[in-house]
Amino acid sequence: MSNFALALLLFSFLLALAAPLHINPRDFDAPFLDCYDYIIVGGGVSGLVVANRLTEDPNSKLYIHFTVLVLEAGPLDDYEDFIMFPIEDGYGLGTEYDWNLWTAPQTFLDGASRPYDMGRGIGGGSLINGMCWTRGGSADYDAWKALGNDGWGWDDLLPYFQKECLPHSFHFINTDRLQTENYTDNVDADFSRELYIQPNISTHGTSGYVHVAYPRYFYNQSQLFLDGLQELGIPILTDPNNGTAAGGMLIPDSIHPDNQTRSYARLDYFDGFINRPNLHVTTHQHVTRVLVSVPHNLKGRDYPAGFWISGVEFVTDGSLTLHNVSCSREVILAAGAVHTPQILELSGIGSEDILNQFDIPVIINLPGVGNNFQDHPYVGVVYYFDNTSYVNIDMIENNPGLDNQAAQEYYANKTGPWTAGAINTVAFPSLPSISQNWTNMMTDASSQNTTLYLIPGLDRTVIAGYDAQKTILTDLLSRRDVGAYELLNDNIGLLAVAAMHPFSRGSVHIQSTNPYMQPLIDPRYCSNPLDCQVLVEALLFNNQLINTTSMRLLSPTPYYPFFQGATRDSLMPAISIGIRTEFHGTGSTSMMPLDLGGVVDTHLRVYGTKNLRIVDAGIQPLVPAAHLQAPVYAVAEKAADIIKADNSGLVLSGCGANSGFAGQGPVIANHSIISSTSSSVLVPSTFPEFLNSSVLSSMNTAQRSANPTSPLSLASGAVPDQLPVSSGVNTNAIKGAVSVFLNGAGILTSPPFLLSKGFVAPLTFPLQPSTVPAVPTMSLIHRARGASHTRHHAVLKSSSPSHRTTTSAPFSPTTFDTRHISATSASGVIAETPGIVTVKIAAREKEDGR
């Protein structure tokens, strides 16, 4: 029998074993395979993208044999209204689809902790984000390249934003569905001119998995906001995603253009592919660490120096039993910028200073793990639009008849206010375009001592990496074609600001060996005062904006301390209280050279390992001036191609003694499992003890080269392989769309859109131990809908799905002021003082925003 025939026979056998499954999280005897080719930790955006691409059949019937396991800690959603409907944007925060994390006390602000929301479940952040689809500017990604990351500039990533044309070396990939983006220009020509929507289709994908389109309803406030920016000399961009991103814009959303529902990773990269026989996806599996081996029979190709990762250890929610599952090719971490460094540190990969605090044996001393953490500091400020001739969401939501009519319109023909999310119009102004003080600020930045505002005691490589970043940041903020901050506008009066290129650096580190305890998240907002200075300049610019001819039509009413007489000194205390996350944590496992504190190389391989990669937002060395979902999709698409290319020359059988991969060597701290019922038990308050470090000392000297006592060096670490390189409502907004809010016509009689149900009902996540300090209730400065719309409903509705009534009601807009709201529930009270909303919710206080 020929080798090819043997390969096909083995291929058929593997397919028989690899039946498609979505594993029930309560089935402790679920049919895991003993071994998978690839294990992906995290079923969010990046994890699902990579899983989808690794299991697709790219015109070669030999490729589908790869088996992939995805382990996700969260649930599978049930297509709840608050996930699917744009009008419910923000309702997912605080639910089971949110990790519901907290930051460390922010000592450079007011000393209080902040909520730190992150998506949790199949789809990750795309389940609950604001759906904003922005790529950022070309300068953002060219900055990545300037940090020593060849192949990661704008020109390199553009094919992955659109996924249309790929490098010639990836000829083996299926060309039927190459694209990520499925962009639809669904706005009528006349209306698109009013709102400056004139995209360059050549820079967009048009047949990909993720639908990118515009809502079928816009408020006149959007046009007035853009016109006001133009009065002040801010350019208006007709396509914010073509590489030029400094200016005002109406941004598209990740929504389906026809049914006007959320387009998210679960729908786009999972639902249509669940029957692939080589793809196993399971929920409610909490990965505790990766398993490190010393391989003894590497075959097939040269690997970089370092340890072999033989699999992962995990716990099913509701169980204390530890499970192991093995891999023959790679373990891929896609757990996000918070949980990926936690898994690495629990595995003995990280800074020896951190690991030694918890008596974790140092397998790879990698100082960059958990450091270089960045986020966009966000301040939500409302300048209430008091001209009630301009319809806004509060006027609709607080009028039951009007709200019911909006609901009927949405269910009937997918038009009207329910198609609009919280944010559509934004701006990314450059610092020179809004501040005369910018030269002084950049002079201060250039003259700063590198270590002055960093965490004390950082490794010299991490300091060197920040020094290189600071030079790039100073250059970026001095340019007129780079956005210094984001200005977010809605129809009520939100003019929120968020610094896009922060100089502050935080960290994410374990605070216990218990894998269920959240890591210590410390963004260290405004630890470098330049970030708060940028926000002050942004708020001062707001006062110019609301005085433009266009914006005065809305009768904006600022409140203390954001009134016209505001000064830099008077604004700083409000910023100190008001800063929150914009949900854009990055950098904690940065892609940079090792001598700059990097954690992964340009192939996204963790230094010191042969087969451990990271594909989530943590690898981004500088947070781009963008909402992160589009960059995360693009990075994951590129990562999948890198992984395929690196493994393309290997023999068919991945799991097996005769494969071109490593046979398993001794596993460090193995808890002897592949069976579904292990004797290893996770004690709730402690992580299982590691084997004595003498195990390490018995290893072959050559294999220990990746476990130095000093920071890993390029000589001993992984050497990257080289890859080739008017009622206030506008009319005729959408092609073919008819809205009763546009002309007062009756509801169309087309069949209502019905959402199908999911595979399994979401299960309640058990409470886990946490040492996040109790925080007294604090004042929050919300976005407008966070204050008067989203938060109002979130408290009253808790996490229950929305079931809106759809009875008929006449169109009867009403004029009233919704500025002062109050509501009570079993969980707490909403109270308000002008301009600042205070939310009291039992043990948790949350803010909505994107």
TrEMBL record:
Q: Where is this region: Disordered?
A: 793-816
Q: Which InterPro entries match?
A: FAD/NAD-bd_sf, GMC_OxRdtase, GMC_OxRdtase_N, GMC_OxRtase_C
A biological process from GO:
secondary metabolite biosynthetic process
Q: Output the Gene Ontology terms for molecular function.
A: flavin adenine dinucleotide binding; oxidoreductase activity, acting on CH-OH group of donors
Keywords in alphabetical order: FAD, Flavoprotein, Signal
Boundaries of each Glucose-methanol-choline oxidoreductase N-terminal domain copy? 119-142, 336-350
Comp. bias (Low complexity): 805-816
Task: Please name the PROSITE patterns in this protein's record.
Answer: GMC_OXRED_1, GMC_OXRED_2
Family listed: Belongs to the GMC oxidoreductase family.
Q: What is this protein called?
A: Glucose-methanol-choline oxidoreductase N-terminal domain-containing protein
